[in-house]
Design a protein that fits this description.
By secondary structure, the chain is mainly beta. Helix content is 11%, strand content 38%. It has 3 helices and 12 strands. Strand 3 and strand 4 form a beta hairpin. Helix 1 runs antiparallel to helix 3. It is globular.
């Protein structure tokens, strides 16, 4: 009776190892991300506001009462302002410029990460504001990935939070930014909190030691 050889060829084994269940890994320390405006950041979470240091954002509270970092919210609509910082053209954060509905100031955090096709970026977000309803001062929180703007939450919709998730279609360097802006006026502070970042890999790559041991066994 012929005994079947059950040892996989090295190439077959390597392919099997690379096609493994998806695994999640935390995003790099958020303190290494670039910031503009009022941003308070720790390794795993960040808070961004529209609070300035010179305007009475929340009268009768004094100017800067709700500012967290000691850096005022950054201007929108100017060269080297918030829009260019997050990868948009000037005017890219204005909700309806034709009718005079424009973003005026805000804060943002950005970073570049390496991804493979099928990898998924996820994080939790929470939007809060001192604006009342109804309002035409529709402050909002947003996400930008590779120059594409996505709304997270705003005053009008009363969106308060959730989990953002996006799967990348192609490998490369993904430019990621998120932020928050005041719309139509400089008064009243709004805030975005983010955390629980992870990048879920479409294909988990084995540790080098595990891969080397498996290939040696395949050749024996």
């Amino acid at each position: 009776m012929m005994k079947l050889n059950t040892v996989l060829p090295a190439a077959t084994l390597l392919a099997a190892l690379l096609i493994a269940p998806a695994q999640a890994a935390p995003i790099a320390n958020l303190t290494a991300w670039a910031a503009m405006g009022d941003v308070q950041v720790s390794a795993l979470s960040a808070s961004l506001t529209t609070a300035s240091l010179i305007y009475e954002d929340d009268f009768p509270a004094a100017a800067g009462t709700y500012n967290m970092s000691g850096v005022g919210a950054a201007d929108v609509g100017i060269p080297a302002g918030l829009e260019e910082f997050v990868g948009l053209q000037i005017g890219g954060l204005d909700p309806d410029p034709v009718n005079g509905v424009m973003a005026l100031e805000g804060s943002a955090l950005k970073h570049a990460i390496q991804v493979q096709a099928g990898d998924t970026l996820s994080f939790d977000w929470a939007f809060s504001t001192r604006e009342g309803l109804p309002t035409d001062h529709n402050d909002y929180a947003f996400m930008v990935i590779d120059d594409v703007l996505t709304l997270l939450g705003d005053v009008a919709s009363a969106s308060t939070g959730g989990r953002f998730s996006q799967t990348f279609a192609a490998a490369g360097t993904a430019q990621i930014a998120f932020g928050i802006v005041d719309v139509r006026d400089y008064g009243v502070t709004s805030r975005l909190n983010i955390g629980a970042f992870d990048l879920t890999y479409a294909q988990a790559v084995p540790e080098p030691e595990t891969l080397a041991l498996s290939l040696r066994r395949a050749k024996s």
